[in-house]
Design goal:
This protein is 27% helix and 23% strand. It contains twelve helices and 21 strands.
C-alpha cells in the first residue's frame, strides 16, 4: 500500500460552527468500544486528522489489557518507530555487549616496516566507525610496525551481500547521508562535511571552507563569497554543485554564505563505499606517518590467518542509543543486517535478517501477523506494524533482561535526541522515554511514560494521513495526558 503524499495546506481560521460540526462528526463516527478521552479526540480534530487514520494504545506496563486502544490492529507505516523492533531484537539476539570487528591482514611479507604485498581490510558491518576511531586504527597499524605498503589495499566486504541500493530511491535525495546504503565496510557513514565560517578576523571579508575528511578523491572548488543579510536558507544561497559519479566527486560553491550565519556544517554523502574507504586509508595512514600509493580492489582476507590489527566497535548497548535517540537510519540498517547472521551463515541479506526477526518474535510469542519489515530502520514506504503490536513489544521489552539498555536508548522528553525540543513546557519533561517517527504522511511515537506516582505507561500513536504533519501537537497531547491523567481516568468519564 502506498501512502498518499503529504500536502501541507496553510492554516486558516475555522468558523466556530464549522469547527463544532467537524468535532461532532468525529464523535459520531467513533465506535463505542474505542472510546478515547475527550482531550485526545479534540486534539486530532483540531489537527484535521480523522481518527480512522490513527492507531493508539495506552496501557500500564503490568496490566493485562490497555487502558484504552483505538484501531490497535490496523497495519500502518511507523516510520522510524520501526527501529524499536530492530533494537530490541538486536539486544536479545546479539547481546548487550556485542561488538563489531574490522580486521587488517598482511597478504605478503613485512620486512623492516615495509609490507611487500597487499593490506587486506575485512569489515563485519560496524555501524559507527568515526574519523577518530579510524585514526586510532591507523595508529595501531603504525604502532605494530607497518610503515609502508608497496602493494594495494584489498577490501573484503563479503560479510554483507552486495544487494542493490538506490540512494535516490526513497526521496530522490541521493546525497543525503541518511540515504547511504549498508555495507560491511562502512566508514564515517560515507559522508563528507563542509564547514563554512566567516574569516577568523571577523571582518566579514571572506569565508573559510574546511572539508572533513580531506579526501584526494573529492575535488573542492574555492570557498564561497561572504554574503550580507540574514541566515535564512543559507544552503540555497551557496549555489552548490555536487558531481558524484562514484569513483570520484567534485563540489563547488558559486554563491555566497551569509556572515550572520556564523559557523555552519553541511554533510553530503559522496563516492561509492570502496572508493571512500580507499580515500580514508590514504589520508589517515599518511597522517599517522605511513606511506601508501596503491589502488584498491575487492578480495578476501587470507584463510586461517590471524589479523594483524583489529578495530572493535563500541558495545551494542551504546550503538543502540545512537540508533534510537538520534534515529540514525544507516546505523539501524547495519544492525538489522547483522541480525541475519544470527540464524544463517554470512553473507547477511535483508531476507535473512527478516527471517531472524520473525523467528525471534515467534520464540517470544509476540504475534504480529501484519508486520512488514524490509530494512529495519523505518526509512521505507513499505514497512508496516500496528499500534497493538508495538504495545506488546514494549511490554515484552519492559519484562526483558535487556530492559534497562532498551529503555535508556530512547529519547527523553525535553532532554535529548529527537525529543530535545519537545515537551519543554509540559510536566512530562524528563518522564517520557520515547521513539519518534517522521515521514511524509506519517507521524508516530512509541515508548514509556512514567507518571508522578512512578507508574510506567506504554504509549503508542501511529498516524498515516496527508495531514500527518499537523498531528504532532495531538500526539504530544496524548503523551502529556498519559502522564497527568491516565492513572485516574476511567471510560465513564466520557459521559
Amino acid at each position: 500500500m502506498t501512502l498518499p503524499a503529504a500536502r501541507e495546506r496553510p492554516r486558516t481560521p475555522s468558523a466556530p460552527l464549522a469547527a463544532l460540526l467537524a468535532f461532532a462528526c468525529v464523535l459520531a463516527a467513533w465506535p463505542a468500544h474505542g472510546a478515547l478521552p475527550r482531550p485526545i479526540i479534540r486534539a486530532f480534530s483540531a489537527a484535521q486528522v480523522p481518527l480512522a487514520s490513527v492507531g493508539i494504545v495506552v496501557q500500564q506496563v503490568d496490566a493485562a489489557r490497555p487502558l484504552f486502544a483505538h484501531q490497535p490492529d490496523l497495519p500502518q507505516n511507523p516510520a522510524s518507530v520501526m527501529k524499536l523492533v530492530t533494537s530490541f531484537a538486536a539486544l536479545e539476539l546479539l547481546g548487550t555487549d556485542y561488538r563489531w570487528r574490522t580486521e587488517a591482514y598482511l597478504d605478503g611479507t613485512l620486512d623492516r616496516g615495509v609490507l611487500h604485498g597487499d593490506l587486506v581490510l575485512k569489515g563485519y558491518g560496524d555501524p559507527k566507525i568515526t574519523i577518530e576511531q579510524w585514526q586510532s586504527f591507523m595508529a595501531k597499524l603504525r604502532a605494530r610496525g607497518l610503515d609502508e605498503v608497496d602493494g594495494d589495499l584489498v577490501l573484503d566486504r563479503s560479510y554483507f551481500a552486495q544487494e542493490s541500493h538506490d540512494p535516490a530511491g526513497f526521496d530522490n535525495e541521493p546525497l543525503k547521508p541518511y540515504n547511504v546504503g549498508p555495507d560491511a565496510l562502512l566508514v564515517n557513514f560515507k559522508a563528507v562535511k563542509f564547514r563554512f565560517s566567516p574569516d577568523a578576523a571577523g571582518t566579514g571579508t571572506g569565508i573559510a571552507l574546511k572539508v572533513e575528511p580531506p579526501l584526494a578523491q573529492v575535488a573542492v572548488g574555492p570557498a564561497p563569497a561572504a554574503g550580507a543579510g540574514g541566515c535564512g536558507d543559507w544552503r540555497a544561497g551557496l549555489r552548490a554543485s555536487f558531481e558524484n559519479p562514484g569513483a570520484s566527486a567534485q563540489a563547488s560553491f558559486g554563491g555566497a554564505f551569509p556572515v550572520a550565519c556564523g559557523e555552519r556544517d553541511w554533510w553530503v554523502a559522496l563516492l561509492d563505499h570502496p572508493t571512500y574507504v580507499h580515500g580514508m586509508f590514504e589520508t589517515y595512514f599518511r597522517e599517522a606517518g605511513g606511506r601508501f600509493g596503491g589502488r584498491w580492489r575487492s578480495g578476501a582476507a587470507p584463510a586461517k590467518a590471524a589479523p594483524f590489527a583489529v578495530l572493535e566497535s563500541a558495545p551494542l548497548y551504546d550503538v543502540i542509543r545512537d540508533v534510537n535517540k538520534l534515529s540514525n537510519n544507516v546505523m539501524a540498517r547495519q544492525v538489522f543486517l547483522t541480525l541475519g547472521t544470527t540464524r544463517a551463515a554470512p553473507p547477511a541479506t535483508t531476507a535473512k535478517a527478516t527471517e531472524a526477526v520473525n523467528a525471534w518474535l515467534a520464540s517470544r510469542k509476540l504475534r504480529m501477523p501484519e508486520l512488514l519489515i524490509d530494512n529495519g530502520s523505518g526509512l521505507s514506504r513499505q514497512e508496516r506494524i500496528s499500534a497493538g503490536s508495538l504495545a506488546r513489544l514494549l511490554r515484552a521489552a519492559n519484562a526483558s533482561k535487556v530492559r534497562d539498555e532498551f529503555a535508556s536508548s530512547l529519547a527523553v522528553a525535553a532532554t535529548d535526541g529527537t525529543l530535545q525540543r519537545r515537551f519543554q513546557n509540559g510536566s512530562v519533561a524528563g518522564q517520557g522515554l520515547l521513539k519518534t517517527g517522521t515521514l511524509e504522511g506519517v507521524r508516530a511515537i512509541a515508548g514509556y511514560v512514567i507518571d508522578a506516582g512512578g507508574r510506567r505507561w506504554i504509549v503508542v500513536a501511529l498516524v498515516n494521513h496527508p495531514n500527518a504533519g499537523r498531528a504532532q501537537a495531538a500526539i504530544d497531547t496524548l503523551v502529556q495526558w498519559t502522564y497527568a491523567e491516565a492513572a485516574g481516568w476511567t471510560p465513564m468519564q466520557l459521559r
